Amino acid sequence: MKVIAGCIVLKEDKILMVKEKNPICYGKWNFPAGIVEEGEKIQVAAHREVKEETGCRVKLKGILPIVQVESPNKETHVLIRFIADIVDETINFDKTEILDVKWIDIEKIKNMGINELRGYDTTKKWLSDIENNNIYPLEIISNLDFPNL
Questions:
Q1: Domain 2-137 has what CATH class?
Q2: pLDDT for the residue numbered 33
């Protein structure tokens, strides 16, 4: 099982998107996200992934409903997406991993097809969650240590 954390970074009626270079989803638009590393807090991973994939820094504002999916290779993925505001909009990304980074109008994203979006169904679900204000406070995640286990 992999936990994938990322952000939907909002500014006015636009979302900061990355165009994937990964061969399994080459050329598709996605929200900046990636695997939570062992021992890493989910919120820290979300910040890190946005910074790595876009160069930008963000402030987490809320969290969308968690989604569990099965990848094509039958691996379970738990997808966590935060709603975030831009703090530093210095776009700078690794061109060996990302093709492009840009702000895209929410309505345009809603009209993108399955061949344009990575995780088409989850993207549409999260956009609907945003539209319906189905956003939870950050405090829904508790980071606890269990030294006595």
A1: alpha beta
A2: 98
- Measured over the CA atoms of residue 108, residue 109, residue 111 and residue 113, the dihedral's sign is positive
The pairing of strands 14-20 and 2-11 is antiparallel
Q: Say if residue 149's pLDDT is above 60.
A: no
Domain positions in the chain = 2-137
Helix (H) or strand (E) holding 9: strand 2-11
CA atoms within a 13 Å half-sphere pointing along the CA-CB vector of 134: 11
40-46: long-range contacts, CB 8 A cutoff, minimum separation 24: 41/143, 42/3, 42/5, 42/80, 42/141, 43/5, 43/82, 43/138, 43/141, 43/143, 45/3, 45/5, 46/5, 46/6, 46/7, 46/80, 46/82, 46/84
Q: How confident is the model at residue 86 (pLDDT cuts 50, 70, 90)?
A: very high
With CA atoms as reference, report the closest residue to 50 among 2, 21, 11, 88.
88
Note the pTM of the prediction, 2 decimals. Answer: 0.93
Share of the chain above pLDDT 70, in %: 97
